[in-house]
Amino acid sequence: MTSWLPDLSSGTGPLYQRLADRIEADIDRGVLGAGTKLPPQRDLAYDIGATVGTIGRAYQLLRERGLVSGEVGRGTYVLKRHSDSTQQSDAIPLPAHPEGTRLTVAPAGKLRLDSTAAPDTGQGGAITDLLAQITRDHAYEIASYTRDFPQRWMDAGSLWLARNGFRPAPDSIVPTLGTHAAVMAAIAALTAPGDYIAFEHLTYSQVSRSAGLVGRRIALVGSDAEGIDPEDFERVCAQKHPRMMFLMPTVQNPTLATIDVGRRRDIALIAREYNVLLVEDDLYGGLTEDKTPLLAEFAPERTIVASGLSKSVSAGVRGGWLSCPPAYRHRIQVAHKMLTGGMPFLLAEVGSRLVLSGKAHEIRRNSIAEINARIAIVREKLAGFTFQARDNVPFVWLTLPTPGFPARSRTRHSRTACCSTTRTSSRPAGRNRSSMPCVSASRRRARAPMSRAASRSSADCWKKAVPVTIPSAELQSVIGAACASALPAAARRSSVATSPAVSGQICRDVILPQARCTACMPRLQVRTPSVPLLVSSQFTMASVFHGGPLTAIRSRSKCRSGSSR
């Protein structure tokens, strides 16, 4: 598309935002139809008198809105809108449950096992007694807005957040409506719209999506079986200068990785060198018996620690606290009020009394016993599969086999840059620590590009792959939650996700084998029973929640290194 130019004479906000809004408006009006190629960033920057970086930010914003898809070397194209009256029959079918992969209402007589909330162990009785006492003792406070926080709320937070050698002072505590609200309050108070916030490729998506909703940009950091890679964190800091990083050093959701002492120390040093704030989500740390020092012990002047009661005591109480450097406390408290409307006295008082009375710790012990009973069932039912599970933790991480490769050759292919898989139990320890090989493979490519011969060898490996059909019913049962929790980009308007790094991660590790040599990036063809859909192995992931099977095959392309692929 070379004849189109945006009209930027109206609108408010930064130039990149006005440009993105104008492109979206032209897409809505049909000026830019589905499949239209947007001008190259350098050309559009010259035409409107802006920098290439401004155009890149606008295009990135459009990708986050689900309006365009971009590929290196091909350009940026407008995606088809589901609301288009001209939508053809070959469009990707919408998921059966567009609101997510979880049932909104559990069937009658069934227990919900699709949540990591604290299990019901009879804590309702203790909460009922506390509610009766609070309504009797604090009728006025319950009827009014909460303007002052009693000291006992901070004392409770200091007690609940304390773990190992970490003992936060009460004057560093902010009571919050759960851990999620605590993290978002810190993001809103200490960063500005447009700032980068660093996340792992696989992370707790609710936080990253929420950060996108308030205008923060996402920078992805590589990780492996032992958690965040400090070297890649330093690279991201040097290139994108993130203002903050969100991480779960103890029992990361969803991979269950726990960062060791050495890496925590390295992360703290890098954060101090590049002036990056750290948000340490320790929600699952209290369930474990892990003795590793908290990240806040290495960098107390820049670390916010957040935790709450939802996973171990009661999610409905919405009890949460964060600890921060005292200079940030008032700003975070005000931001929390602006985001949530204020702290309800009744809920904050219930959470504090549960902790100060010792009932919260008793309920947590009962919850751990119930969680371990369920984990024992999981280990029995998934015997023979490769998965990660940990005592006291209410979720598991299941590894799916890569389509097209027999089990006996999986280790070999996982070591190549062309075809990589998730780590399996048959892989020798010590060769490569990565459990997310697309990250490690990309690092290897960056440091030591493959030779022509190695590229041909990788292409030969790919030729041995065969089409594989994966029944959607099986996929829904084992990766539905994984796909929902692993995408940190904002909610899409299309059933094709276009997050450049993370969607490709899932595409390679969960659905499709990675197919890329150093010379070119081939395309994969995903076929449903009725219609084919071309999906790039690097940039997009097709929705798999439809009625038929999903077949992954490769399309023929010519590798620039000379080998036919």
Q: How would you describe this protein?
A:
This protein has 565 residues and is α/β, with parallel strands linked by helices. Helices cover 38% and strands 12% of the residues. The chain contains 18 helices and 17 strands. The strands form 5 sheets. Strands 3-11-10-9-8-4-5 form a 7-stranded mixed sheet, sandwiched between helices. Strands 14-17-15-16 form a 4-stranded antiparallel sheet. α2 packs across α3. It starts with 14 loop residues before the first helix and ends in an 11-residue tail after the last strand.
What is the end-to-end distance?
30 Å
Unreliable stretches: 84-99, 406-565
Strand content: 5-15%
**Would you count the extended β strands for me?**
17
Q: State the shape.
A: globular
Q: Helix share of residues?
A: 25-40%
Compute the gyration radius: what is it? 25 Å
Strand order of the largest sheet: 3-11-10-9-8-4-5
Mean pLDDT: 73
Helix segment tally: 18
Structural class by secondary-structure content: alpha/beta
For the biggest sheet, the summary is: 7 strands, mixed
